[in-house]
Sequence to fold (225 residues):
Amino acid sequence: MITDEDVVVCPVCGHEQTITICPSVNVTTDPEMREKVLTGELFEFSCDECSFAGYAGYPFVYEDKETNGGFLIYLEPDCEDREVGIEGDIADQVIYHERPMRLVADMNALKEKIFIFEAGLDDRVVELFKVLTLAKMRDDDPEKIPDELKFTKRDVVDGEEVLVFTAFRDEELMGTLELPYALYQTCVLTGEPIWDVPITECAAVDSKWILERLGDQDGSDEETV
Fold:
C-alpha cells in the first residue's frame, strides 16, 4: 500500500488539516484493501477541530492484476473529462492497455466497476444492458421507473442465472431488480459494432459512452473516434 499526505477542509467548520491518504492500491498483493475500499474505510477522516466524520475525496487508482484478466479503475472525484491519458500519477499502468482501464468520478461508480469486473462481465455490455432496460421500463410505466441502475452482483435464482441491479430514482433507493443473464448475452450481439471501437486510455464508460456510440451506428457517416 502506497501512502501520501493531503490537506482536507472540514465541510462543517472549515478547519484545514493534513491527513494520510492512499492514492493507489493493488488488491492482488494487498487483498485486505478491497474491503476497505468498498466500505469507504480507506477514505474516512475525522476533523481535529469539530470531530466531524466524513470522506476525503482524492485521485485514487484501484488495481486488480489477476481477477478475470485484471483491470484498473482511476477515481478522480467530480471529474468532467471523458478520458485520462496514462501520464502523471498513473504513468506506470501502461501494461493495462490490453485490459480494462476505466475513469470514474465518484465512489458509487468505482464500486460498481469493481463488482462488474469481478463478476467476469464487460462493463460496456452492462451499460448497454442498463440503457435498453431503462428505455423499456419507461415505455411500460414512465411514472414509476428508476432513473439509474447500479450493478450489484451476478447470481442464480431458482436455477436461472441473473444479474442483480440496485434501482434509484432522484437518488433515492427504490429496491433491486433481478434480470436474466440471457438478456446480457443478447446485448453482446446487439451492440456488436460498438465493441470494435478501441479504448486506449482510462475512459469513462457509462450511459453517455453507450449513447454516443449508438448514435454513431444509426446511419451516421461520421468517423467513429
Observations:
- The longest helix spans residues 123-140.
- Helices lie at 32-39, 107-118, 123-140, 181-190, 207-217.
- The CA atoms of residues 51 and 158 lie 48 Å apart.
- The longest strand covers residues 16-26.
